[in-house]
Amino acid sequence: MRLLLDTQIAFWWQTGDRRLKDAVRQLVEVNEDPVLVSRVSLWELAIKAGTGRLKIDLALFTSEVEALGFSWLPIENAHILQLAELPVLSGHKDPFDRLLVAQSASEPLILLTADAGLGRYGALVRVV
């Protein structure tokens, strides 16, 4: 199964955060298909770092994504077109999360996230 890591999951993975559950680590590590991190996540982290909401070495993050064996998922026109079709769920309008869901639907991929609100988007989102 092709997996897409939500920004939070990718950040936790890279930093070794204890909030990343062992079951998630195992799911990713035994997966034989590509595990992807979206450029959307890099964009989100850059904005949070630029506003002082997050301390992160973005250059290290980008090199670690590849060193960990993950691949980058670019933002394609098809993803943005899918975003335009995605329903806006009440209480969840985060543009980065919505684009990750749109990428999952467009590719298709399974989006791994810790955000229970994203689970309302259906089978392409797995809340872990």
Primary descriptors:
128 residues, 6 helices, 5 strands, alpha/beta, 5-stranded parallel β-sheet
How is this structure best described in words?
With 128 residues, the chain is of the alpha/beta class. The protein has helices spanning 7-15, 22-30, 39-50, 58-67, 77-85, 95-106; strands at 3-5, 35-38, 71-73, 110-113, 125-127. The longest helix is centred in the middle third of the chain and has 12 residues, at 39-50. It is globular. The two termini are 15 Å apart.
Per DSSP, what share of the residues sits in E-state strands of 2 or more residues?
Answer: 5-15%
Kindly name the structural category: alpha/beta
Q: Sheet bearing the most strands, described?
A: 5 strands, parallel
Number of helical segments with 4 or more residues:
6
- What are the segments in which pLDDT stays under 50 over at least 5 consecutive residues? none
User: What is the ordering of alpha helices and beta strands?
Assistant: EHHEHHEHHEE
Helical residue percent band: 40-55%
Radius of gyration: 14 Å
Number of strands: 5
Q: What topology, given as strand order, has the largest sheet?
A: 3-2-1-4-5
Principal-axes geometry comes out as: globular
What's the N-to-C terminus distance?
15 Å
Task: Name the average pLDDT.
Answer: 94
Topology (SSEs and partners):
Blueprint: E1 3-5, H1 7-15, H2 22-30, E2 35-38, H3 39-50, H4 58-67, E3 71-73, H5 77-85, H6 95-106, E4 110-113, E5 125-127
Parallel strand pairs: 1-2, 1-4, 2-3, 4-5
Helix pairs in contact: 5-6
